[in-house]
User: Fold these one by one.
Assistant:
Number 1:
Amino acid sequence: MNSMLKKLFLTFTIPALVLTGCSSTRGDSQAADIEPAEADVITERPDDGRTVVGISMPDRILERWNRDGAYLKNQFQKAGCEVILSYANNLIDTQTDDLKAMIEDGADLLVVTAVDGAAISNVLEEAHRQGVRVIAYDRLIMGTDAVDYYVSFDNYKVGVLQAEYVIASLGLKASETPMNIEFVTGDPVDNNARFFYQGAMDTLSPYLESGKLNVPSTQREFYETSTAQWSTDIAQQRLQIILNSYYPEGMRLDAVLCANDSTALGATRALEADYLGLNKVVVTGQDADIANIYNILNGSQSMTVYKHLKQESIVTVSLGKDILAGNTPEYDLIEKSGWDFACSFNTTDYNNGNKVVPSYLLRPIAVSADNIEKELFETGYYNRNSSGLIFASKN
Ligand code: GAL
């Protein structure tokens, strides 16, 4: 798994591309270039003089998608596109209806973060039949040819960073004393959750195998540790049951590896309520949600994996503009972008069951109390108002 994710680069000779604002040439150049499978046949899209981008986000309860939606909408509008932005309340049917409505409203491009990666292939195949292009945003769309590109962070690396933080904080390399850990992984219908899990498990496996790290609940498989809908309440309830079942007085818990911040919130609440030990339990997270930044500053959460959401939207908008200009971007998109941040082009690792989807991957960063000011506040990602309240910088 490790080596597969690190091989990243593809070099093709690509015709020089002209990229200016949000214009679209419909159907002609693509039909010539691509040998599509049946579902991928792209017919002429009637030219209505509009360039419409449909952005479908999973829900508003998880903090980050509100920001992703706002960043994407703002930047596509700045590029002269008409934008339809919708939130699906974590409901598959709602997302399917939202996507159908966007196609009917003349969308030329769909940017989609799937509620369930395997549940929207029909509507996307209809989109492709009508010449609409599809970018999977942050979460891979599974089981269909009707997805053109994937933009995300190196999801495997997220799990590696969380595990490395646990190993360093517990001093596992040098320690002779066995330690105890529990796992709170992500939503099983989110393809990312598996990458986070695998990155963490591959990194911890030497310690789990040697007995330096134990799991008193014995729950370490992906499904049995997963959290439907990344729900804070479900994560809290599950960990409270584990604490009350396996951690009587005197039984020490050293770490809880949580896949993201919404589950980490549940874990810290469970620890506050039901953990009898006096030691500080290491708790990981992901997304740098504001509520969790306060918890890292007050010490109840140890770290989070910061993903610069604005950069993810910048890559997506550049890619979207290039596709709408009738091009088939590859590594060249990075070369000509002038971005001041790292981004790689991957054509090997994100197989959605039908095809390997060409992917642009950004770099996640581990953030703890040690580097939080530098990474989140000095960069202006977050600011504080006069009474110290943290808020996100405008899009
Ligand atoms: C994942 C995403 C994470 C986290 C999680 C819960 O797909 O990559 O950043 O936000 O969903 O929303």
Number 2:
Amino acid sequence: MKSWFRGAGFLAGTAFVLGMASAAHAADAKRGQFGKLDDGTMIETVTLTNDHGMSVTTMTLGASVQTLSVPDRDGKSDDIVLGYDSPAEYLADPQYFGATVGRFANRIDKGRFTLDGKQYQLEINDGPNTLHGGSQGFDKRVWTIDSVKSGPTASVTYRYKSVDGEGGYPGTLNVTATYSLGEDNALHISYRATTNAPTIVNISNHSYWNLGGATANTGSMDDLLTINASAFTPVSDTLIPTGEVRPVDGTPFDFRTPTRIGDRVRDGSSEQIRYGHGIDHNFVIDGEAGTMRRMARVEDPDSGRVLEIWGDGPALQFYSGNFLDGTMLGKGKHIYREGDALVFEPQLYPDAPNHPNFPSARLDPGDTYSNDIIFKFSTADE
Ligand code: BGC
């Protein structure tokens, strides 16, 4: 059976839509080092820089985004992603700052699923459930650098082999994560995976965006958010989808027109907002899965920075940074507090393997899993 993600040919379409094909300048990819893990492993970096004030540093630990700088409306570039100053802190991190999350992003109910009549038990690492692949998910792995390219579009491809049985998942999975940057201030992330036995896959990026600056003393709750979703998937009190696909009409999850996030995350009349301590939900994106389309847009009124999230997957997890509780010291010893940053994860639905009515997360030998994401930056006038 074919599922939505086994298509091809959208890259050319994306380049056309976002103007990458017409880039006039050269973007640069440069290798560097971030530091060593306790066992002596060197964490390498690749920084992609363009001529329009944007640069992004990615690293082999978790194939993560470590810094990302873009100009504000006055042309001043700032790092706008949360993170740490050393590899050891990333390894201890319970928040998945900037990481590639997998083998299965978000939660699986009690870590259990059945494939071809056989039940699998994954490692439990979030209350009664499995979150983001388990405690040693893709975010905690040291990936290898496959290729680094400068050119009109600069890029780096990371590779990781997840062996059969790792974290409890069947099948050996070969995964790549490619970051590309052209001159249009759009970071393109593309994930691919193949397997040698039937398995489940759901991979996404877990960057925390504070459009005002990662060390700004203002959070993200004044940001104006639009999500192109007419429905969302309600959850239980352990944040597992109930299976229902509910229209957003008349709920605090209706972001179809620009809405101040802070006006929604304190709406305790909604059981769903109470369960998430804010918003931590899967939005079913309008339009056709398999087609690159705009999923969401965020605008920070102070800095004027605008982030558009594009993707070709069926859904978007929007997490309003509800569990940043002031106990984490990030870059430059900055304390991260609730609502400081926003996470947008284009992906399949959480707990998809346990809901036949959700798009399938199954991957078979001979097929290629793919998920393509674009984080595109611009500024808005005052
Ligand atoms: C999840 C949150 C979780 C967070 C961990 C998000 O993707 O939706 O529930 O707490 O990741 O940092």
